[in-house]
Amino acid sequence: MQVFVTGGSGALGRPTVRLLARHGHRVRALAHSEAGWDGLVAAGAVPVRGSLFDAGTLTGLLEGTEAVLHLATRIPRDPSPDAWAENDRIRTAGTRALVEVARASDVRTLVYPGVVFTYAHGGARWLDAESATHEPTPVLTSTLDAEEQVTGFTDRCDPDGVRRGVVLRMGMLYGPSSGSGQALLGAARRGRMPYPGPASAYLPLVWDEDAAAALVSALDAPSGVYDVVDDEPLTRAELAAWLTDAVDGHGRAPLAPRDVDPDSPYAFLQRSQRVSNARLTRATGWRPSVHSAREGLRRLAASGAAAG
Fold first, then answer.
1. Pairwise CA distance, residues 222 & 131, whole Å
2. Distance in angstroms (rounded) separating the CA atoms of residues 137 and 266
3. How far is 30 from 222, CA to CA, in rounded Å?
4. d(CA 61, CA 110)
5. Which of 64, 135, 161, 150 lies closest to 99, judged by CA?
């Protein structure tokens, strides 16, 4: 299959492009820097220059494309809400342009990775795309706009179902490809709990390479919205205990859960979201190789020790 990827050089894009190529797909991916270009070539993709906001360029890039994975983001390091403007533009105007060009081309499948963090606080209840209610904050509303564009690719473009729009709402990425793994362990070694929230609140996580595998599986998924998380979400208290153990916590005081200012634009990170991946498993057979953060944190600690 000919697949076009945006964001192929990112934390989610890199393992996804590698996996697509490994599965025999022909991958064309947008590149915005020399380093990104070289990385895409190494991963097995054909890098191309272009802009999400230039419909004319996109029309040429999508020629012959059967599926699009729209992974582009611009997540800022600056915590201020104003810093999210470019990311919001990619999610809104960029997604809209991509969908319009795909609708006028031979593209049959369009996949977008959303986030589960738009879900309202759920306590200990199991949540999924069908049962959860949304409570977005300003930094999250643009991802719901992108989801609407992608699901509309099916509804408005092909009511008979030949064309498919698939949204995968991701848990928080961690693992070897995202670059966050050693940062998590580093924070834990300094005595800081990297995941905010009350001790009893569940946090949905997903190993980055499992998230990539979910994106590849979505090429064959029915149209709809699915959740991509590990099998067993842990509470912050459980995560604190396992993080402490992962950094050789013998004699070390357990990490203490921490809160975020309730007026912060990132207060949503404190919600309890016990999210299930069952719908995606039923639809595609995808299963995470890392079933919970218990296993993932041990892997990260082992890989860090080996690198050291």
1. 19
2. 8
3. 26
4. 15
5. 150
- What are the tokens at 132? 């959860």
- Cα 224 to chain center, whole Å? 16
55-66: per-residue pLDDT in tens?
899 999 999 999
* Beta-bridge partner residues of 85: none
What gap in Å lies between CA 27 and CA 35, rounded to an integer? Answer: 18
Return the higher-pLDDT residue of 15 and 189: 15
DSSP bridge partners of 26: 2
Contact 238, 201 (CB under 8 A): no
Alpha carbons within 13 A on the beta-carbon side of 102: 33
Distances (CA, A) of 299 to 139, 252, 288, 295: 31, 20, 14, 6
Say if domain 2-171+208-230+276-289 classifies as CATH 3.40.50.720.
yes
What contacts 80, CB < 8 A, 6 or more positions away? none
Beta strands in 8-92 (DSSP E): 26-30, 46-48, 67-70
Residue located via tokens 């800022």: 76
Give the pLDDT band of residue 160 (cuts 50, 70, 90).
Answer: low
Percent of the residues in the chain that have a pLDDT greater than 90, as a whole number = 65
d(CA 206, CA 293): 8
For the chain, the domains span 2-171+208-230+276-289
Token pair for 185: 């362990």
Structure tokens at 169: 């709402």
H or E, element range at 165? strand 164-170
Give the tens place of pLDDT for each residue, 100-116. Answer: 999 999 999 999 999 99
